[in-house]
Amino acid sequence: MLAARSVPVLPLRAGKVPFGNCRTCTGNACGGRPNMKHAGPCHCPKVCHAWAAATTDPRVLTSPAWATAWCKAVSAAYHPGGAGLTVVDLDDADAIAWARASLPATRTVPTTRGEHWLYRGAMQSANAVRPGVDIKSTMAYARWLGPGTGPITALPDVVRALTVKEPSKVPPTAVTVPAQAGAGECRHRTPAYLDRGIAMAEQRITEARGAVHAAVYRTFLAVLSTHGRCGCLTEAHVARLFTAAQAKGESPWHCTDAWTNALTTLGL
């Protein structure tokens, strides 16, 4: 049972949605705070407050109110953040291809249209961080679709970077392509992996529909999170990213600014 493994669970009704608040808790009249980062916003014995209702307490899970909800439920969900997990929800084949080229391997769970990639560690949740990709962790729920396959690896910086907002603009000291932070051969990635990653990064910048500054910064941050410390990035790779950004209207100044801010964020 999930709750026995310290995974907070809750029932879902038709449409893959939680049960609504009871009359007492409607509009948070009960004083509940569904913005809290942990379960149990109030002491209501019913299945209220969506993700925040998720619990591991066997007394709650077997109570009459919850027993009724379980009888009506069509599926189960869990609160990833409450279990110290992050789910990268990949909605389609393109999103899966991006993940395979850009993210460290970890446990995967097949879904109706795509896959859930599970990482050990909690973070801020966010929807549509890129086409077909949602992040589900704190203040969110994910459907339970089985244990999945493969070991769960630690939450990488490249996933955290997906929710990072555009940094403030600080004038850079130069507009040339900055030198790389790492040194030596990249022992954990192949040249083909790096080439795919750069190609995916170029595509992500090219396909940005709005907030281009933020998209460029997040892409630079993701690339540096994976390869910034090992020295495998060359000036040619960085130039490809800058070229893609400038084709979307970014100036050389903005490119250098975003790159410098990404290096600073990662401590490179």
Describe this structure in words.
The relative contact order is 0.11. The strands form two sheets. Strands 4, 5, 6, 7, 8 and 10 form a six-stranded mixed beta sheet that branches. The longest helix has 16 residues, at 191-206. Helix 5 packs parallel to helix 7 (235-247). This protein has 268 residues and is of the alpha+beta class. Mean pLDDT is 81; it is low at 33-40, 167-177 and 179-184. The chain has helices spanning 58-61, 64-72, 93-102, 157-160, 191-206, 212-227, 235-247, 252-265, and strands at residues 9-13, 17-18, 75-78, 85-90, 107-110, 115-120, 126-130, 133-136, 142-143, 153-154. The chain is built from eight helices and ten strands.
Summarize the structure.
With 268 residues, the chain is an alpha+beta fold. The chain has helices at residues 58-61, 64-72, 93-102, 157-160, 191-206, 212-227, 235-247, 252-265; strands at residues 9-13, 17-18, 75-78, 85-90, 107-110, 115-120, 126-130, 133-136, 142-143, 153-154.
